[in-house]
Design a protein that fits this description.
binds pyridoxine-5'-phosphate, eight-stranded parallel beta barrel
């Protein structure tokens, strides 16, 4: 049975829209754990557009599950990761102009650089995952580089429908089998929501699903009425 990693970047997005102190992702990580999250995922981006350094260090101290740090393979992030010591790291490609992580990491083109980078982290006892598109070549190179895990990019699956979605699902299933045969642990994520998650969750040996946007969107949908009611009551009661 796959476990659930909850990505709380969007909580920090709301805070950063006002550059204030609420909502605090640290508090929401606690609530996500109460709801059954098996791990908490945060992406510390180079431009610090949502999660801040303070968040990751506080989360390291406060969460009771596992901390999955998503980051780009840069010298700055390597330094932070070695100080933070998250339970594992997911290496992602990062572009300043993108709204969210767009494609998987190209582990083939960056082979030697990533090999050294991953070695540096595993020497510090941090397990490392590669966020990659579901292609055999990327999986084989991930193994050679020395990643412990891969996270298969489900963004395309999430965008497609009908037979095209079915075909992409088959690609993800075959990629999972290939990676398992090579001894890699397989996670998946991006674009998963309440309608499309079940088929991915039921793939044999799927280890963990990382989900953010749809969970935070659902939290707003099921929580807004209550929060308006509380405000209305404060205004109207005397
Ligand atoms: N996995 C990775 C590597 C990501 O970059 C993201 C988005 O931050 C997710 C999973 C979660 O995607 P979503 O927010 O669409 O659920």
């Amino acid at each position: 049975m796959a476990t659930l990693g909850v990505n709380i970047d969007h909580i920090a997005n709301v805070r950063q829209a006002r550059k204030t102190v609420e909502p605090d992702p640290v508090q929401f990580a606690f609530l996500a754990e109460l709801g059954g999250a098996d791990s908490i995922t945060v992406h510390l981006r180079e431009d610090r557009r949502h999660i801040q350094d303070r968040d990751v260090f506080l989360l390291r101290e406060t969460i009771k599950t596992k901390l999955n740090l998503e980051m780009a393979a840069t010298p700055e992030m390597l330094k932070i990761a070695k100080k933070l010591l998250p339970d594992y790291i997911t290496l992602v490609p990062e572009k300043r102009e993108e709204v969210t992580t767009e494609g998987g990491l190209d582990v083939k083109s960056n082979f030697q650089y990533l090999k050294n980078f991953v070695e540096n982290l595993t020497d510090s006892n941090i397990e490392v995952s590669a966020f990659i598109d579901p292609f055999d070549e990327q999986i084989n190179y991930s193994k050679e580089i020395g990643f412990n895990f891969i996270e298969l990019h489900t963004g395309k699956y999430a965008e497609l429908s009908g037979y095209a979605q079915y075909e992409e699902l088959q690609r993800i299933i075959e990629s999972t089998h290939l990676a398992n045969d090579l001894g890699l642990v397989v996670n998946a994520g991006h674009g998963l929501n309440y309608n499309n998650v079940k088929k991915i969750a039921s793939i044999n040996n799927m280890n963990e699903l990382n989900i953010g946007h749809s969970i935070v969107a659902r939290a707003l949908a099921i929580g807004l009425e209550k929060s308006v009611r509380e405000m209305k009551s404060l205004i109207t009661s005397n």
